[in-house]
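ARCHIVE CARD
Drawer: 12
Card no.: 0347
Subject: one protein chain, sequence and derived structure
Cross-reference: see card 0346
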Amino acid sequence: MRRWAVATALAACLPAFAQGPSPALTAELPTELPPELTQALQAGKVPADAASFLVWPLDGSAPRLQHQADASRLAASVMKLFTTGAALRTLGPAHTWRTEVGLGGPVNRQGALGGPLHVRGGGDPSLVMERVQQMVGRWRAAGLSDIRGDIVIDRGLFSLPEHDTAAFDGQGLKPYNAGADALLLNHQAVTLRFTPDASQPERARVTLEPALHGVSLDADLKLLPGVPCGDWRGALKLSMT
């Protein structure tokens, strides 16, 4: 818990730096970076004037070191600290996400559910396929082997406006652009897996993980021998019909 508090406190200082120097930074502070840090920046080809540092103990004592601490910077992933801090304040450090499952009928001796299976999303951001498989394994261990009714999904926990996945950067199919969802299954993402065919070296098979009902793939691709790979991920194009 203490580490989160520290991270949030550091993130909250950023707007103040962007608006002007903090009074604590007007004092004479060491500005020369330690040799180890300078070497790390050089190894990463990061110019010293492109980085900002502030070493400020949380015990209330004066800052130890500042290097361009009042320079305006893009917050980037540091912004996650604000949402993390808000979540800790709102939900508390002991909050756990719950995905509830209920049976809408009896289970007979053969393990068949004679009714629907209800799944109520609780906003769990880490409900990946591995955890779903574990969940199904526990159902089987409890005697449930067949669902003869519908699977009813309740995603009503969040009341949110329509989310435009392409609004941020025009990359609407990127997983990081997925919106919040009460049942955020597998981060709302699928994986295309390319596997060379041992029997046909010039071909590759394509599979979708997880498999989606009603979605089929042109699962046989031709490989181009002798062509440099380069940015092969960036060159991939998805065509949907």
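Annotation on reverse: The chain has three domains: 2-91, 97-186, 191-235. The chain has a mean pLDDT of 83.
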